[in-house]
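Ligand: magnesium ion. Inputs:
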Amino acid sequence: MRSSRLIPSRETGLKLLRIVGFYVAVIALWSLLGRVEVWSPFLFPSPEKVFASLRTNFANGLILDGLQASMQRLVVGYVISFVLGMALGLLTAASKFANETIGGVVLGLQSLPSITWLPLAVLWFGLSETAIIFVVLMGSTFSIAISARAGMRGLPPLLTRAAGTLGATRWQLYRYVVLPAMVPSMVQGMKQGWSFAWRSLMAGELLFVSVGLGHLLDVGRNLNNINMVFAIMLVIIAVGVAVDRLLFGRAEAWVRERWGFAAA
Amino acid sequence: MRSSRLIPSRETGLKLLRIVGFYVAVIALWSLLGRVEVWSPFLFPSPEKVFASLRTNFANGLILDGLQASMQRLVVGYVISFVLGMALGLLTAASKFANETIGGVVLGLQSLPSITWLPLAVLWFGLSETAIIFVVLMGSTFSIAISARAGMRGLPPLLTRAAGTLGATRWQLYRYVVLPAMVPSMVQGMKQGWSFAWRSLMAGELLFVSVGLGHLLDVGRNLNNINMVFAIMLVIIAVGVAVDRLLFGRAEAWVRERWGFAAA
Amino acid sequence: MALIADTGRQGGGRASAASDPEPLLALRHISKHFRTSRQDTLALDDVTLKVRPREFICIVGPSGCGKSTLLNIAAGIDTDYQGEAVFEGAPIRGMAQQRAVVFQEPALFPWLNVRDNVEFGLKLRGVPKEQRREIVDRQLALVNLSRFDRAYIHELSGGMKQRAQLARGLAVEPHVLLMDEPFAALDAQTRDDLQLELQSVWARIGTTVLFVTHNVREAVILGDRVVVMSPSPGRIKKIIDIPLERPRTPDDHAVADLAAAVRYELQNVGAEPEPRYAI
Amino acid sequence: MALIADTGRQGGGRASAASDPEPLLALRHISKHFRTSRQDTLALDDVTLKVRPREFICIVGPSGCGKSTLLNIAAGIDTDYQGEAVFEGAPIRGMAQQRAVVFQEPALFPWLNVRDNVEFGLKLRGVPKEQRREIVDRQLALVNLSRFDRAYIHELSGGMKQRAQLARGLAVEPHVLLMDEPFAALDAQTRDDLQLELQSVWARIGTTVLFVTHNVREAVILGDRVVVMSPSPGRIKKIIDIPLERPRTPDDHAVADLAAAVRYELQNVGAEPEPRYAI
Amino acid sequence: GSDEAAPKGAASPDQPVTLRLGYFPNVTHAQPIVGLANGTFAQELGSNVKIETKTFNAGPSVIEAMFAGAIDASYIGPNPAITGYVQSGGKDVRIIAGATSAGALLIVKADSGITKPSDFAGKRIATPQLGNTQDVAARAWLQKNGLKDKDHGGNVDVRPIANADALALFIKGELQAAWAPEPWATRLILEGNGKVFLDERDLWPNGDFVTTHLIVSAKFLAEHPATVEKLLRAHVKTTQWINENPDQAKQVVNAGIKQVTSAPLPEAVINGAWRNQKTTYDPIASSLRKSADDAFALGYLGEKKPDLANIYALDLLNKVLKELGLKEVSK
Ligand SMILES: Nc1ncnc2c1ncn2[C@@H]1O[C@H](COP(=O)(O)OP(=O)(O)OP(=O)(O)O)[C@@H](O)[C@H]1O
Ligand SMILES: Nc1ncnc2c1ncn2[C@@H]1O[C@H](COP(=O)(O)OP(=O)(O)OP(=O)(O)O)[C@@H](O)[C@H]1O
Ligand SMILES: [Mg+2]
Ligand SMILES: [Mg+2]
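Predicted complex:
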């Protein structure tokens, strides 16, 4: 078993070949389209130019610095919105009154695009990191809250009763039963929340000039430098795929292992 | 039973009272905060002013026209992205090769903020409604595709076999088993896709000056008219809640009735 | 219908039906209404039942006769009723470790492995780690799950899950074990196995059991007494003594005859057109 | 072990074990390997079984002996094996309406109500509406579900679901009904009911049935013949005739005795430490 | 047949042409608003030319649209014009006339205590966008006065931020100053209790520096020179009319803004803004080059100094000016 992991089997090799082949074909087609100049090369650059821009912006540190700054904001905003979202979700799930009232507000705020928060963010928090993080927060908190609420709503009463007859106090019930039982839906909520947070961050970073991927994208656009825009898009895509595969893919696998298929 | 729907029972009455009470309290608090001027009225307008702005902009038709234009784009973009997303999702679920290749691309594109699509939208579709709709499309298609793929992946093989032993052909299998079995996850995907589509639309409407809620928001921002910004936000929230309650709420209830709790 | 006379019982420590010491659990004149906007169901109507220490009581009856309702009241899950529910001299006010419940569905915590599930109640009570391990090991051995202590719940078969639930209940050393159709969802073979096992566990540790089922054969194999209930409203129709030697097996002719006797009682409890199919 | 002699059977149309006409379904020298990267399981090893028209065959055996594998081959769900599977003179190449399957889990379509589920196979075949309704009504009546024809699947109890599955299978008028532990997930009482019902349905319409179970009593109550399989590798160990009058009930002493005989055969099929608990 | 036979570069003048014209609903884009409203554009371009207008919010969108072939000509600020020209490697975007001059001021908060250049040390100044004309002007001016912005190792906090947000922050007191274009400069004064510290006109010879241009795509210029010439004639005539009828022009401009954005500017704002800017057809080429030099010095235009040699195509403008008996402009 172990050896089969270290030495890729024939199937794994073929799979890899197929994937690599596909991407090579995509880039070749792209290159061809770029060469034939079906569209204006100033708006649809060739892969060579995009990769050159990628190289330049990696070399001069812009992308790495931007990536670091963006990830920092994302993590801070995401953690806060996770805590807030969970709290809101639990509150609306636990209290009928809260659900009837705050529940509606949460649902409404969830439908507000990040862009609407920009003026308020600047007004309330000025030219600070807080303003950007506020935009991220508004973008993902409510989505997480809705997931958390659904998760707690779906909690089987059987487990609560089981804990009760085993002597759980109210606090123990939350700590040892409600929270762990919600993990699968929490993972789903976190995944969705991340997606929203990431997009909101890109909007938030347009607020004012600061280091960050969203800002780099804006610079590229303001300079009408489509090579740079594409290069940053590639970076954003890479981050998106990496986070999904590494973080959420693993979390989901773990949930599947622990909670069983049905739950995931 | 029927009568209990027509004549609200005591409980329904109490519930309504609580909800109305809550919103009245919120508005009263808001009004108080506005009056006391804890924050400059420029940053935090009083509800009176916001409602006045709402009234004005309803009366002069701006909101209604904007709403109509935005909803039109949203519906068109959403319907197309639903069809495309479903097709992509089914394709990546059905074919291993497609999943290994296009699957990764879908995942990556899903993490791109709408704003990155603006230059390409103009390039490919000029300054047209199509360009705005394209931005909406890019914002929601991939999210729907991911949901559709998960839905088809989760299809129990038992049902496929049952259909087979009842004599279903390949086509009948898709038409009568796979598609209906996917409905619950499709509803979830549609809900999330709608959220993304709505947010993307606001970005798309900044492409050029056109009638629409996104444009009105921008006008409010440029005029530094916080009353107007709040008023448009209220409209967006109202639309969001209405669509969620009327459309998705019903769809979910229907799914629960037809497919049973477990599926929803 | 012929009730076979008391033909000697194993486990001499058990109180006999004749002498009546202080009951462990006493349900006196219990009535329970379910009121909804549409109707008012009288689920239990003046039900009185006394359970003696170390006794194994089975409750049978058609669907909807109030078996679960009665058990929920005894467990303290349901506290809204008329009448008196007394446990060890004190009124029942809520759920407690002394009255462990084994539910029909496997109510195990899926995020914990078998060992942690069995340990759950002990942990809540703050039992020290060393001691916890010891108790859990003993209970797992008792239900033949020692080899699966690290398995997760979804890796277990239905029978193993119910075994684990039993171990979890027993681990907190309850004074009474309340079981609500614990084997109903199992296939017949696993059910046979578990019936045997439950008998032996009960014989060894001598706890008190209140066992709800609607499987007559099961009731006869397991019970010291079988309580037959009738529906609409839920009442106790008859209590039948089962004076058979243990362990009893399903293919015994004596078991078959007593089961026939219980079935006879059940046949007259009134027509119940649909609930028959409700599981 | 005492095999009771042939004591007359109801339904004289059935072929007797002695005379051997063309079999409806013939599985000849079937071997099946499951190959994974880690191991190679011989699930079936040179299994031969002939099923005569209108016969009711039960297959029993411990978990993992290849019962489901055999049934899947007969159904055409699994087509990758060595040997010959012939149905009505032609080799089996895939799934077909002539060989309807009733699965262990209720494989009903949750988005259709009971009527539409039963109608499903007829609709696929393009049977006209009028005729469809007629057939469905008849089948629903046969399994006592007429009153629930508009109910959705999740509103049914487990027993009703299996009834509906049976009706769906029967509606397409299959030449053989393949049933893979159809009652395993049901509680004992519902199971008893359905056994009785299946017997009467079979007696009335006289279809051929291949019935997989690991419940010995069930096999003896239902089968004309009981095929006892042994695991590792999966083989047919013995085929036992059940010459009892119908309908048979679980409390019959004759059933109990024949069940004991089948159990005796099963006891010697080799140790199987874990699968006992697998449902 | 005749289309293909026609020499590449000039379509026959009788051929019907569609001119897709972009502009912003803004006081600095007075000519298209007025010219479209009072019919000068339609009249000069004639029945053979169909005008389609597109209104934009920001310069980069205009360049994207021009690259994409979605518009043929547009009014636009100097910065996007330069980046468009540079990004296309000089192949696209031609400036064919000026439109507005001046209209950029350094506004400080009245109570900020800033009275002389050195007072800006440690203060926060807003500019509209990193590397745009005002941003470059602000930074260059600071350096000339012995100060430096933070990005260049100094202690003045120059913050590029959207005009609307700058106003909000100015009112809130988070900004002490803003180098802003009209009408924002006037709004900063009126709504944010600001006062003029410096009018950028004071920094330029004759007080002239370019704020808005008229550009065309290179392709359209090559294929439809006659149409471009007509557009320029309309542009020049409208410019003259505006300068002769300022009060009327103001009202037409505001009505045009209202028509597009549904919200007119307050009268005080448009009056203030109007005072600070000048409507002209002169592209004031020298100011563009100076601004580009400053931007390059500050490091905003890359490592190689951009070659703006062919950005101007003023021959047609000069032809029109000559025809109308006006003074020609220089590159
Ligand atoms: N939550 C409830 N609301 C309203 N009626 C209820 C509720 N729970 C039970 N009932 C009614 O009370 C009666 C007794 O129910 P109970 O669950 O105790 O029956 P049971 O004997 O356990 O049946 P089963 O064998 O099906 O489990 C039934 O008529 C049932 O319909
Ligand atoms: N898909 C598969 N891959 C690998 N091995 C398999 C697969 N399906 C079945 N097997 C193996 O083949 C053997 C026979 O399996 P089968 O499911 O036919 O048993 P069964 O008699 O139906 O058991 P049960 O009573 O548990 O349903 C078992 O050893 C099983 O492990
Ligand atoms: Mg019950
Ligand atoms: Mg099987």
